Amino acid sequence: MTAVERRARFVHLTRLSWDLHGLGVCTSLVLPVAGQPILEVRTPTGTTLVRITVVRRHCGWAFVWRPWWARLWQRGEWVWAEADNAADMIMSAVTA
Predict the structure, then answer these.
(1) Burial environment of residue 51 by CB neighbours within 10 A (0 to 12, 13 to 18, 19 or more)
(2) pTM score > 0.90 for this model?
(3) Is 50 exposed, middle or buried (0-12, 13-18, 19+ CB in 10 A)?
(4) What local confidence, expressed as pLDDT, does residue 1 receive?
(5) Distance between CA atoms of 95 and 40, rounded to whole angstroms?
(6) Is-contact 89 75, C-beta < 8 A?
(7) Could you give the 3-state DSSP secondary structure of residue 29?
């Protein structure tokens, strides 16, 4: 992964975190020494509801919140990172 890709992942997750904050959702951005950054969405009691990563696809960047094998088989478990309503779409999918 290049430095440009690492920065893009960070920027997308930070923007999503801010958008979720605007919806009244608690988030934590996890930046491990090795590996991808992860955005954790938490309940008001502090329990982790979902972990979101951002991956590069052939058409752009996408937020993914299920294991890699699930995103290959099921719809509704990813959304384009550039979507204006990505935070709304993610929250409606994970709280349904």
Answers:
(1) middle
(2) no
(3) middle
(4) 74
(5) 14
(6) no
(7) strand
For the chain (96 residues), the mean pLDDT of every run of 10, in chain order, is 88 96 93 89 85 89 74 68 93 83
Going by the DSSP 8-state scheme, the letter that residue 79 receives in this structure is: E
Q: Which two tokens stand for residue 88?
A: 């709304």
Residue 44, both tokens: 């008001």
Q: Which two tokens stand for residue 20?
A: 């979720």
Which residue's structure tokens are 């696809």?
A: 57
Half-sphere exposure of 5 (CA within 13 A, CB side): 12
Report residue 52 as tokens. 């979101």
The two tokens of residue 18 are: 């801010």
**Residue 91: what are its φ and ψ, rounded to 5°?**
-65, -35
What is the pLDDT, as a whole number, of residue 25? 92
